[in-house]
Design a protein that fits this description.
Blueprint: E1 4-7, H1 15-26, E2 31-33, E3 40-44, H2 48-58, E4 67-69, H3 73-76, H4 87-94, E5 99-104, H5 111-114, E6 119-123, H6 128-137, E7 141-142, H7 157-164, E8 170-173, E9 184-187, E10 194-197, H8 203-210, E11 214-215, E12 239-243, H9 246-255, E13 262-266, E14 279-282, H10 289-305, E15 310-314, H11 322-333
Parallel strand pairs: 1-8, 2-8, 4-6, 5-9, 10-11, 12-15, 13-14, 13-15
Antiparallel strand pairs: 2-3, 3-7, 4-7, 5-6, 9-10
The structure holds threonylcarbamoyladenylate and magnesium ion (MG).
């Protein structure tokens, strides 16, 4: 299959392009499209046969459920059995936006979407291209990140192409995504709402709206609540090391690999410090976690392009989206 990349205006998506993309999805095919977080790989969420193609293209384990994307709250009714009280303030404040909410699922959602479970993850993305595409198809769109499973999530159309070339018919190219880490996932089907994945919207912001929340790591019973969290993730080809403790610690780590190509991902302020590194990549200024989050996954792919053996990443500050970013870096390292 030939994979076409079509440039699309991210603010005012061209009607003709959206129509062609929607047609593919309505016919049971796959389309990769930009969201504000990362690129998604979309299929008609109501057709098991279409959704199956997502798992095949990504090489995704069948026990890892997908997020269903909607364009308005009317569509939510077609997907979920009930809307718990606490969902309303979250939807009002954060939708459209980088928040995924877990609800009890409606029977119309095929088992393959939810990996057989009775809950469904739903998100209304804040991206004109994503919204226009869902609106045009008039069905909820199941979409995981548009990468091969275990590879870093795609923040540019060319990343999707690298991973899925020949496996999908169309990639809509809306340029670099704005946020760069995947949505926050909050489960509202548990007694106390539980954050299953960190993202741009912090647990503090969610607490402010609905009161106490748990982090999934705080759960004691040892069940994996969000199957996606148990797999190796965001993995570059190189060995990745997360280093805190400033430039001395980074230099010490570089010296441990004298025979290897060591790439360092660091901050603008420190870019000239690591003379012994094979290559230095910049996150942006140290006090700008938004910028660091936006660039992290694409920097991992750049290190791969340079055939890095080892990637040393300097720990970003934990505030705001920094917390979610540290989570992604740690997973890439494990
Ligand atoms: O920002 C995003 O969320 C992007 C864009 C494309 O919207 N999508 C994304 O999808 O990151 P994916 O499939 O890469 O990650 C979905 C995560 C996985 O960790 C999965 O296990 C979890 O959400 N998930 C999906 N449905 C779930 C459910 N019913 N219960 C618990 N976790 C669920
Ligand atoms: Mg993913």
């Amino acid at each position: 299959m030939k994979t076409k990349i079509t440039k699309i205006n991210r603010k005012k998506p061209e009607e003709k392009i959206i129509r062609a993309a929607a047609k593919i999805i309505k016919n049971g095919g796959l389309v990769a499209f930009p969201t504000e977080t990362v690129y998604g790989l979309g299929a008609d969420a109501l057709r098991a046969g279409a959704v199956k193609k997502i798992f095949e293209a990504k090489g995704r384990p069948a026990d890892n459920p997908l997020i269903v994307h909607i364009c308005d709250e009317k569509m939510l009714a077609a997907v979920v059995k009930e809307i718990p009280e606490k969902a309303f303030p979250l939807m009002k404040k954060f939708w459209p936006g980088p928040l995924t909410i877990i609800f009890k699922k409606k029977n119309s959602i095929p088992d393959i979407v939810t990996a057989g479970g009775n809950t469904v993850a739903v998100r209304m993305p804040a991206h004109p291209v994503a919204l226009a595409l869902i609106e045009k198809t008039r069905v909820p769109v199941a979409a995981p990140s548009a990468n091969i499973s275990t590879r870093p999530s795609p923040t540019e159309a060319k990343h999707v192409y690298e991973d899925l070339k020949g496996k999908i018919p169309l990639i809509l190219d809306g340029g670099h995504t704005r946020i760069g880490v995947e949505s926050t996932v909050v489960d509202l089907t548990t007694k106390i709402p539980t954050i299953l994945r960190k993202g741009k919207i912090t647990s503090g912001e969610i607490k402010d709206m609905i009161g106490p929340v748990l982090l999934s790591t705080e759960k004691k019973e040892g069940v994996v609540r969000s199957p996606g969290q148990k797999y190796r993730h965001y993995a570059p080809k190189a060995k990745l090391i997360l280093v805190s403790g400033g430039s001395a610690a980074v230099k010490k780590n570089i010296r441990k690999y004298p025979k290897n190509r060591v790439c360092v991902i660091t901050f603008t302020e420190r870019k000239d410090l690591y003379m012994k590194a094979y290559k230095t990549f910049i996150f942006g200024k140290r006090n700008d976690p938004l910028r660091a989050a936006r660039s992290f996954f694409s920097l991992l792919r750049k290190c791969d392009e340079k055939n890095a053996d080892v990637i040393i990443v300097e720990t970003p500050p934990k505030n705001g989206v920094g917390d979610a970013l540290i989570d992604r870096i740690s997973r890439a390292a494990s």
